[in-house]
Amino acid sequence: MEPFSLSILLPEITDSTSNDQISATCITSQDDYILLGTNDGQLLLYKKKDEMVEYLMRRGMGVGKKDVKRIEIVGGYKFPELKPVGGNSTLKGVEWFESVVSVIADVKRVEVVVSRRRMFQFCKFYNGRFELVQEIELMETPDVFCVNEYMGCYGCNGRYKIIQFKNNEIIELIGYENRPFIRMINEGFLVVTGMLGIFVDGSGNAIRNTLHFMNAIVAIEVKEFHVVALTEENILIYNSVQGDLCQTIPIPMNNVKCMGRINDELIGFCCNKTIFSIIPLPIDKKIIRLIENLEIEEAMKLFESEEYLKNRKDELIYEKFGSFYLNQGMFDVAKEMFEKIKDLSLIIELSIDEKKIEKLLNEIIENQFQGKREMFEILKVNLFEMIKDLFQSKENYLDLIKFFLNTNKIDDLKIIDLLIKNKSLVALSSFYEKNLMEKELFDLWRSNESLVSLDYFIQSLS
To answer: Where are the transmembrane segments (predicted)?
Structure first.
């Protein structure tokens, strides 16, 4: 199953003052705003509205016609004006920088970590100015790094290193030949050397399985359970736990420039003047697709995973699982699934259609019992037992009522017959009441006093 899809986010990054040679060199976002850095020293600001992206403005960086290599949003700018909050402040001689968010005593603090000549500097951004908080001296100057509030991983002079900020301990890792790539993961870091992606923990120990890239990569991002690697020809999607390649997306045009996170859902990359987005398939749709492909074990694993628990959409998932087990003749398991949902339309429509019931049972016999016709009556009894149990559930009777009272597909006699057969007396009482069938309603109340509605009884006497 392919976990991502590719779409065009922005067909062309030009505006009225842009020239034909402009191209994006970096990309980032905050909320609905997307920021592009360009090869002529400009910032271009866009706003995402549903499926559309609207151009807002451009702002010069004051660096001439140079590439904007990196953008980090640290809370110092207002959108959409792109104006500093307070005074202006510039840090010079910076090789690389990252923003770090820490929470101290429930107060969120944003710091900017920069690498300068043989040092890390931690700066807080306040009132439009950078203020030095901490300085860590090094033996060399990091070319690129990733940090959190406890540790960092950096690359310099062809080797990766980890630094623990608590005691400034340096841990040497593997080397690299060309451009270094580092990304943060929960347990530590992902580093790239040659055609390999290696996961390490904070102590430098290799963890997880190694990624094997098909081509030299241009950029890399980590998205929950996946690693997205950008090459000149393809986007390679890897399972970050097993390490296997699970999807290859061809890039539709040449001259790949950069890649970055647009928001929690999208990863964007630039080719010439076009911005593409890599969109993950929503977790509930992944589960549904697995169920439809009869990959039930994988669907259940994903259903019980942390990823799904963050974005629960249970109703449709339980219905899909219930439908699968229903079609397998596993009525006990199907009942457990259907008991967890409010909308029992599928079961109701099945129960009132004898042809559907017969077709279902025949398919179960053919697929699960090698065509043994003697199983028909046994399965039929078990199926109706499941339906009766579902219809008698107090948690479902309101939905039964809603379905019956709002449908024009079923005549009254069928509804009444179905409710009586399945002993759904609360739903039957409400149906009689709604349809002003007072004789039938009072007869039902005489035999079941717990169903009597005093409000309706008083209204009927007035």
So the answer is: none
pLDDT for res 462: 47
Pairing between β-strand 83-84 and β-strand 77-78 as defined by DSSP bridges? antiparallel
What 3-state class would DSSP assign to 65? coil
Look up residue 449 and give its DSSP letter: G
For residue 134, what are the β-bridge partners?
122
SS3 state of residue 191: strand
CB 278 within 8 A of CB 265: no
CB of 192 within 8 A of CB of 176? yes
Distance from C-alpha of 276 to C-alpha of 295, rounded to nearest angstrom? 31
pLDDT in tens, 180-209: 999 999 889 999 999 999 999 999 999 889
Strand boundaries in 119-241, DSSP class E: 119-126, 129-137, 144-147, 151-156, 159-164, 169-175, 181-184, 188-193, 196-201, 206-212, 217-223, 226-231, 234-239
- Domain segments of the chain as ranges: 4-281, 313-461
Residue 269 has pLDDT above 90, yes or no: no
Q: What is the DSSP letter of 240?
A: T
Average pLDDT over residues 401-418: 64
Is the bond preceding residue 3 a cis peptide, omega within 30 degrees? no
In this structure, which amino acid lies at residue 29?
A: S
Which residue in the block uniquely carries the two structure tokens 């959108």?
79
Percent of the chain with pLDDT over 70: 81
pTM: 0.62
Measured in Å, how far apart are the chain's first and last C-alpha atoms? 64
- Which tens digit of pLDDT belongs to each residue from 10-38? 888 765 455 567 788 888 887 788 888 88
> Of 144, 138, 136, whose CA–CA distance to 118 is shortest?
138
Question: What is 4-281's CATH topology?
Answer: Methylamine Dehydrogenase; Chain H (2.130.10)
- Indicate the pairing of strand 245-250 with strand 4-10: unpaired
In the three-class reduction of DSSP (H, G, I as helix; E, B as strand; rest coil), residue 102 is classed as: strand
Question: Which tokens in the block code for residue 225?
Answer: 């359970």
Evaluate whether 230 touches 223 at the Cβ level (below 8 Å).
Answer: no
